[in-house]
């Protein structure tokens, strides 16, 4: 009798797939409406909401269930300001030797091109442009968010630790957006690991490496909404052995 | 099957630095009639390529670094912003099939 009961309970818990063309469910809606927020209110995020967000990150999948992440929550505005100052210094330095746009900077082009060739991700035109805007004082790394979550990875863990940290981070971001908060992924935190002062202060020591950070706060306005994105070509190897490309 | 580049071809690709030819940036179209001048899109734009002129938003004239993120489209309460041109990194991306821009679809 007990067994049949549990079976029925399990059947009731089973999630049915939606019909073709059915409206988005709550999870899909959060995923599609999530926009990076770059304009925050001064209001601080309460602790219970942050604990709920961190809890969502704790239950993310990871390789070998290694749970390779470590989260650092920074709500101290003075400390965030000091970190931003440090990052701005780095940006100014990078701008000095790698900014080849504008008048009188033509002689730096060869170096910028060389850096782009060997470090295509760090010296992609987009981060370079962001660093230029930051160095000119028009942009702050965390966009004035009251809370910053810094994500560290354990470098001894199996597989791809930074990917696992990314999965945990995305869980937290989606949870935060479902509470009406705004978030933004900010990887400009990584230069901090170059300074022993910040390594000591943030506790980035042996098994841990700095991966990325997330700014959390209440958004100004209603930034969440649908946008258009490119439908990247998907290669599809069909069941009957044929090949097609879908969009 | 899509065509991929060999390293011999890859090494010939220059880094993107010819703006307008190899590296086309995004463009947003702001409807000047429906814009209410609330100014929310200005700080929402990370590369700071929207400015307020006479209580109406418009793209900056001097090298707007728009990356078609759509944050301004999503935040606009009047729905008067539209992305009209998307970022194209032509040299490096010409062999990739990135499809056409579309909103979230239901299948």
Protein architecture, described:
The complex is a heterodimer of chains A (247) and B (107). The longest helix of chain A has 22 residues. Chain A has 2 domains: 129 residues, NADH Oxidase (3-Layer(aba) Sandwich); 55 residues, no CATH class. In chain A, a hairpin with a 5-residue loop joins β6 and β7. Chain A contains 8 helices and 7 strands; from the N terminus they run αααβαααβαβαββββ. In chain A, α3 packs across α7 and α4 packs across α6. Chain A is an alpha+beta fold and 247 residues long. Chain B has 107 residues and is α+β, with helices and mostly antiparallel strands. Chain B has a domain of 74 residues: Alpha-Beta Plaits. Helix content of chain B is 16%, strand content 21%. Chain B is built from 4 helices and 7 strands. In chain B, the strands form 3 sheets. Chain B has a two-stranded antiparallel sheet with strand order 1-6. In chain B, β3 and β4 form a beta hairpin. The radius of gyration of chain B is 17 Å and the shape is elongated. The two termini of chain B are 25 Å apart. The mean pLDDT of chain B is 81. Chains A and B meet through α2, α5, α6 and β5 of A and α3 and β7 of B.
